[in-house]
Amino acid sequence: MIPLRDTIPSARVPVVNYAIIAANVVVFLYEASLGPQVEAFIFTYGLVPRDFTFPSLLTSMFLHGGWLHLLGNMLYLYIFGDNVEDRLGHGRYVIFYLLCGMAAGAVQAAANPDSGVPMVGASGAIAGVSGAYFVFFPTARVVTLVPIFLFLQVVEVPAVFFLLIWFVWQVLSGVATIGARSGGVAFWAHVGGFISGMVFGLIMRGRASTRASATPPRWV
């Protein structure tokens, strides 16, 4: 299933989400300009579990392994990120996004601590955005491209169903890769990111609601 858009328009321009997308694209273009030196760059700034460093939790989420990797991640961020930013506010959304990405990287490193394969990509942070969307917008629907036999059909899928199926698939795939030392998809980063997104989202939304009850509302 390929998501195309959701059915909930955002109330304000998601400037932070656009900025994050732009940052990922710019960094990837820089990677592409490095030629043969890109491997050393990935090992320096990607998250290598056996050589774990806290700065790599941050830098790794802005690196990607190829155009398809980048475009797939940015599509999900574009669809789900604007609404989550709308709910949290611009400032809280920055903090939320970075926390989710770092939590996702930490979970992946803990799941395979002896791995020397660098982990790169925004998908852990975007999984966090998806987790927040899951709890914030239970009645939303996702316009999705679905293969039915030999044809592609555009259908509206309930967001909770779409994201729940995605999450269960990440868990099952993660279990299947336990003990693997080769590269591939960082499924446990997706699982950790999704769960952290639900938790951080509810905490940060709750704090926003508490402030709103005591003071006049303010755009942030």
Structural commentary:
The protein is mostly helical. It has a single domain (2-214), classed as Rhomboid-like (Rhomboid-like fold). 62% of the residues lie in helices and 10% in strands. It has eight helices and three strands, in the order E-H-H-H-H-H-H-E-E-H-H. A three-stranded antiparallel β-sheet has the order 1-2-3. It starts with a strand and ends in a 6-residue tail after the last helix.
Describe this protein with a few key phrases.
220 residues, Rhomboid-like fold, three-stranded antiparallel beta sheet, 10% strand, globular, disordered C terminus
Itemize the secondary structure elements and their pairings.
Blueprint: E1 2-6, H1 15-33, H2 38-45, H3 54-59, H4 67-88, H5 90-111, H6 123-136, E2 141-148, E3 151-158, H7 159-176, H8 187-214
Antiparallel strand pairs: 1-2, 2-3
